[in-house]
TrEMBL record, chain A:
This is Alpha-ketoacid dehydrogenase subunit beta. Keywords: Oxidoreductase, Thiamine pyrophosphate. Residues 11-188 form the Transketolase-like pyrimidine-binding domain. Gene3D superfamilies: 3.40.50.920, 3.40.50.970. CDD domains: TPP_PYR_E1-PDHc-beta_like (cd07036).
TrEMBL record, chain B:
This is Thiamine pyrophosphate-dependent dehydrogenase E1 component subunit alpha. CDD domains: TPP_E1_PDC_ADC_BCADC. PANTHER family: PYRUVATE DEHYDROGENASE E1 COMPONENT SUBUNIT ALPHA, PYRUVATE DEHYDROGENASE E1 COMPONENT, ALPHA SUBUNIT BACTERIAL AND ORGANELLAR. Transmembrane segments: none annotated. The keyword Isomerase does not apply. The pyruvate dehydrogenase complex catalyzes the overall conversion of pyruvate to acetyl-CoA and CO(2). It contains multiple copies of three enzymatic components: pyruvate dehydrogenase (E1), dihydrolipoamide acetyltransferase (E2) and lipoamide dehydrogenase (E3). Signal peptide: none annotated. Residues 19-313 form the Dehydrogenase E1 component domain.
Amino acid sequence: MSDTATKAKPVTILQAINTAIADAMAADDTVIVLGEDVADPEDGGVVGVTKGLSTRFGEHRVRSTPIAEQAIIGAAIGASLVGYKPVAEIMLMNFTTVAMDMIVNHAAKLRFMSGGQTNVPIVIRTMTGTGFGSGGQHCDYLEAWFAHTPGMKVVAPSNAADAYGLMRAAINDPDPVLYIENLPAYWTPGEAPEPGHIVPLGKASVVKEGTDVTIISYSRVLTEVVAAVEEMEAAGVSAEIIDLRTISPWDKETVFASVAKTGRCLITHEAVTEFGIGAEIAATLQSEFFGKLKAPVGRLGAPYAPVPFSKPLESAYAPTAKRIAQAAISLTK
Amino acid sequence: MTSNYAPDGATQLEIYKRVALLKANDERSRKVIMNGRLVMPYYSYRGQEVIPSAMATALTDDDYWVTIYRGIHDMLAKGMPLKDLWAEIAGRVDGTCKGKGGPMHLTYPKKGIMVTTGIVGSSMPIANGIAWGSQLSGNGRVAVATFGDGASNIGAFHESLNMAAVWKLPVIFLCQNNLYGEHTTYEKATSAKRVADRAVAYNMPGVRVNGNDPIEMFAAAREAVERARAGEGPTLIEAMTFRFHGHVFGDADAYMDKAQKKAAMEADPAPIFRARLIAEGIATEEQLAAIEADIETQIDEAVEFALASPFPELDELTKDVYAQGAAA
Ligand SMILES: Cc1ncc(C[n+]2csc(CCOP(=O)(O)OP(=O)(O)O)c2C)c(N)n1
Ligand SMILES: [Mg+2]
């Protein structure tokens, strides 16, 4: 978190996203916003992420839509084909499942299938995350589905400055970007980004340097990793923490440099472990560092089960600082 | 029908030129496949030529079209060059999409052919977005989404019609009702007596026309285009037609009603249209024969051009997945 100079007062992730979209809209008339409830007569979004935008830029550029996810993504795709840069909101990540045809068969593939004649510069914003007792259909992390789709890019900021910088980069990007927001983390304050601050897609950040184990994460779980530092240090383990920021394409250079140094790696995320982002990174590290690793690559995600409602079960679902510390420490034993 | 939108003689001849091109191209496609010169999934549109011919004649080059796997007639009508089309369906580097799209995904933005989808129903949500772009920029361009009768049963149809009506988008939903969705008849799959009736639920005009009649089809197309350009919103056109050669080339047709098929083929719209143009003195036999001979020559050239065109280099496999040199 070194790349933002700040004297300004802290902002929340929610404010950072709002400001990033507003700044992009002010800079470029082709940036438009659509989604359920996104305009101000509908409160500027169910959580208020787009509050103020329609008042400032007009409801022709910030449109509340019917509850029709295929139509939302289809409209974004179509407008992008004729020169616009839509930022479409799919309220919750689980609702992307009813728009998968538009995302996977169309947004991701039109550039390739047209031989490069068309491209789809859209951003799909979506929020998710356990912690609010929403149960099985409102807080899944499905990033692996999209990362597994050639043509899509996937980003997941963990702090306000990155939320701003990744949004500006995603809007500028000529290809479709899925932008994952964590619901419980919306109100987490952080360093304010400089206006115009860009976090290039595909660039991870080294949040903390260390020597014994590399811990890779993104989105809200990154803050759990940071919270695990104390316990790890008490056990004599020095962790290097990498915030991936962009899940696809992921920053192999930064990750390889770190693992070359530490010889150990733990990947942790809120999505279920099986067939997840951790599996991809672990497999890549296994090829790159075969015979040079000091321990098998570790993965820590949610158990292979739907998100439960009951509080103790929900609390046991996503990785916590405690479980991350234990997993990291055990890699050094 | 709304006769004030009826095509004059010159316009009818324009429509016929397209019909003749589409018909000849379908016949050649089946022949080339039969002769083993080309291997591809082919969804014949024979019998449906009048619909896109009339629709495209009511549009300009700047208007947009989103079509489907059974869509080569739409593309040719909208102006995709034959050579580019044939090279694409042959998977060659000179194709519209460098051979990477193929017969189900041809794209040609130069003539407004923005997307060809192989997913039933998916033309409509995207056409809405294109039309939204027209509305935002005020450029007056209309977007046409074409689809089949079967596609009127999928969610995307309903989501799209609703949004288009709420937003008053300059879009035309053009349903080519050929009475079958794959092997299933219209009646067995569709609750509404007519697809056009579904427009009522979305508060937009819906018309059923004889899609094989160029005058009726053109009048409906032109009226819908005018509405869209005037900012009055979308129209659903249900154009009744029939596909002569089953769902996909090689389909044995066992599921089809033989008498119904025979009657439809006897009522082949292309020769009927041709005979009427001559009978009404809009064109002469010699004139039409010359047009048709020219089309055959153009197709000859396109086929040979396509089959002589090289296949793409293998490095094309990973190109165009993302922008070259983009932040990645
Ligand atoms: C979402 C989806 N489901 C199923 C299919 C397989 N399929 C291809 S064409 C077709 C029939 C569509 O019928 P209709 O909409 O009437 O169009 P037609 O082929 O008659 O022109 C089906 C079921 C598909 N391509 N996409
Ligand atoms: Mg059909």
